[in-house]
Amino acid sequence: MFRCLFPEPPPPESVQDCAVAGVLGVLPGIMGSIQAVEALKFLLGMGEPLTGRLLLLNATDMSFNELRFKKDKDCPVCGTNPTVKALIDYEEFCGSRREPLPVEEITPRELKRLMDGAGDIVLLDVREPYEHELCRIEGSKLVPLGELGERTGELERGADIVVYCHVGMRSARAAQLLTSMGFAKVRNLKGGIRAWAHDVDPGMPIY
Fold first, then answer.
1. Which positions ≥6 away from 98 have C-beta within 8 Å?
2. Dist. CA 143–CA 136, nearest whole Å
3. CATH code for residues 2-93
4. Are 140 and 123 in contact (CB under 8 A)?
5. Strand ranges (DSSP E) for the chain?
6. Tell me, which fold does domain 104-199 have in CATH?
7. Which residues are tagged catalytic?
8. pLDDT tens digits, residue range 127-143?
């Protein structure tokens, strides 16, 4: 009945995956145990299932809340005239299976040589503000990945842009986004700021 609440997936670019945003590992364990209990109740024919109820967990204060909802008669899965009658490819359905655009990479040492030379480079940090406060490459501009799509007007399309993040994953996505929007020269810092600290600036704090 989850499709009764959310019949259409959100735009793929609006939701970061776990590889980028991270995941608090204990939460899947908690919710997985609850799902296992629900499965046992169903198999044993006992108790009251969570049918028609969406269970919400706030781990910051360890509180549970319920959202009750009615079955949607037009639901494509469980409605009066369902159109989805078998398992589907949800990666395809949600638009998460896409061929990534090729991204040019630059190593920390190569970037350092360019910075020491006469090259006019725009350093774009797509991490979160608290990460930027911990450590950053001098002269970089902070635009978190989640805000990049709305703030591309702050960047010159003809500029030589080097994007970096913590280890190079978010910045790769940012570089793909900028490239798809017509920015001419965008490179991803290979290994992110961790590699920069290791190869160029050993005194930089590492997190």
1. 12
2. 13
3. 3.40.50.720
4. yes
5. 53-58, 63-68, 104-106, 121-125, 141-142, 160-164, 185-189
6. Oxidized Rhodanese; domain 1 (3.40.250)
7. 18, 165
8. 999 999 999 999 999 99
